Amino acid sequence: MKIHKEGYGILAISFAIILAVYIIIFLLTGWCLFCKITLAVAVILLICIARFFRVPKRTALIDENLVISAADGKVVIIKETEENEFLKQKCIQVSVFMSLNNMHVNYFPVGGEIIYCKYHAGHYFMAYYPKASEKNERTSVAVRTDGGKVVFFRQIAGFIARRIVCYAKEGARINQCTQVGFIKFGSRVDLFLPMDSEIMVKVGDNVRACESVIAKLS
């Protein structure tokens, strides 16, 4: 299992803490049943943390006319909305919620030029909260495709997530399905698409980053 670089530090710290606690327990109790159970729990905990930072192999679907899912998870919102941060116009919002069980690497849904990138401090409401897109800690990115379409999206922290990592740099050219960042322990990605896009998913669908088609651009 490949581990994302954002997990190295957390795994090292977790291992050190768990090891120290286990050594103390072993010195106090010896190799008893309680010590054996503690060891099993420690191993399971480390495996769970490592699994959260996993980077599974994906066969990326590359097509300049398609918007590919930026995250693993479940589609929780599809609606027409007014995007007032950058686009300043009506668009179609598609939101994908990532549970703790999902892989949490995020990818560029389209390729092209990054024309906007901004970090916003904020709250940590549940990601299902309708206003999480505007109230929670988030990073906003806009990409202009070679076909002239602009796709705007946000990485959004949730109730558990407390750290957003974003690699996007304004002015850079990026390829579709390359890594845009990581949301540590959560939580949601919002896509804001042109009104003439053909949406290919529905609320409740489970999608996979780099593989699931969210929409077709006209």
Percent helix among the residues? 10-25%
Spatial separation of the terminal alpha carbons: 38 Å
Main sheet: which strands, in order across? Answer: 9-5-6-7-11-3-2-13
Structural class: alpha+beta
CATH architectural designation of the largest domain: Distorted Sandwich
Q: How many β strands by DSSP?
A: 14
Main beta-sheet annotation = 8 strands, antiparallel
CATH topology name of the largest domain, in short, is: Glucose Permease (Domain IIA)
What is the CATH domain class of the largest domain?
Answer: Mainly Beta
3D structure, described in words:
- The protein is elongated, with a radius of gyration of 20 Å.
- The longest helix has 22 residues.
- It is 21% helix and 34% strand.
- The mean pLDDT is 88.
- The strands form three sheets. Strands 9-5-6-7-11-3-2-13 form an eight-stranded antiparallel sheet. It has a three-stranded antiparallel sheet with strand order 1-14-12, with no helix packed on it.
- Helix 1 runs antiparallel to helix 2.
- With 218 residues, it is α+β, with helices and mostly antiparallel strands.
- The chain has two domains: 48 residues; 151 residues, Glucose Permease (Domain IIA), CATH 2.70.70.
- The relative contact order is 0.21.
Compile the SSE list and pairings.
Blueprint: H1 8-29, H2 33-52, E1 66-68, E2 73-83, E3 89-97, E4 105-107, E5 112-120, H3 132-135, E6 138-144, E7 150-156, E8 163-166, E9 173-174, E10 179-184, E11 188-193, E12 198-199, E13 206-207, E14 213-216
Antiparallel strand pairs: 1-14, 2-3, 2-13, 3-11, 4-10, 5-6, 5-9, 6-7, 7-11, 8-10, 12-14
Helix pairs in contact: 1-2
